[in-house]
């Protein structure tokens, strides 16, 4: 508390009392203090490692491990949604687009989708600056396997219509930013839980969020 002097209209000096917080008495919370605290030690009782079908798998082939997570049911759902989205896009085109490459579309099959996904995985191992270069026939740049298993135009048109959920059934008030990939994401998360038990110490690297 401190006193403030002021002058009235007639020049008389009056005295009033004004309450102000005492600046010097405020606690300083910006300093570090040592406290005697220990986190609760929760015992880890799980057995880390492969579980379920992953533990029973005897094969060492990469495709067999992949199929533990990417099931036939998931692939069929991707095929159904991709074919549906292609039909929706083509039906929405006007007459001026009748010569568009999209009109060469034909429904994708299970075999084609597996080949398509395999090539996508392969692009993660063999890096090239542009997608078209995987079908390049130049001796210095060629990767013949791509041309051998799927024509470039077919790969590109599947890539163009690749879809995981039906846009027409999305609720108007949907706030899920991952709606378009939700079926695939939920399936994979479920499979990860079914196939592997992590150890007690887990490090989540920022690279997982990119």
From TrEMBL:
What InterPro entries does its record include?
A: PGBD
Question: Which residue stretches belong to region Disordered?
Answer: 1-31
Domain PiggyBac transposable element-derived protein: from-to ranges: 62-208
Q: Which Pfam families match?
A: DDE_Tnp_1_7
Record's protein name: PiggyBac transposable element-derived protein domain-containing protein
Instruction: Please report the organism this UniProt entry assigns to the protein.
Output: Cyprinus carpio carpio
């Amino acid at each position: 508390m401190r006193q403030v002097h002021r002058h009235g209209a007639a020049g008389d000096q009056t005295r009033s009392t004004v309450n102000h917080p005492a600046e010097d008495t405020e606690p300083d919370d910006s300093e570090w203090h040592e406290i005697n605290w220990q986190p609760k030690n929760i015992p880890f009782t799980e057995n880390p490692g492969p579980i379920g079908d992953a533990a029973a798998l005897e094969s060492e082939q990469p495709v067999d491990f992949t199929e533990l997570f990417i099931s036939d049911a998931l692939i069929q759902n991707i095929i159904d949604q991709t074919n549906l989205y292609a039909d929706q896009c083509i039906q929405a085109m006007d007459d001026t687009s009748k010569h568009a490459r999209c009109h060469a579309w034909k429904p994708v099959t299970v075999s084609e989708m597996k080949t398509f996904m395999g090539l996508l995985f392969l692009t993660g191992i063999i890096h090239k600056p542009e997608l078209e270069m995987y079908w390049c026939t130049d001796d210095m740049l060629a990767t013949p396997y791509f041309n051998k298993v799927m024509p470039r135009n077919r790969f590109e048109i599947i890539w163009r219509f690749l879809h995981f959920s039906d846009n027409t059934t999305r609720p108007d008030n949907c706030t899920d930013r991952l709606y378009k990939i939700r079926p695939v994401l939920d399936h994979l998360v479920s499979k990860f839980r079914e196939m592997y038990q992590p150890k007690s110490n887990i490090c989540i690297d920022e690279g997982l969020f990119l």
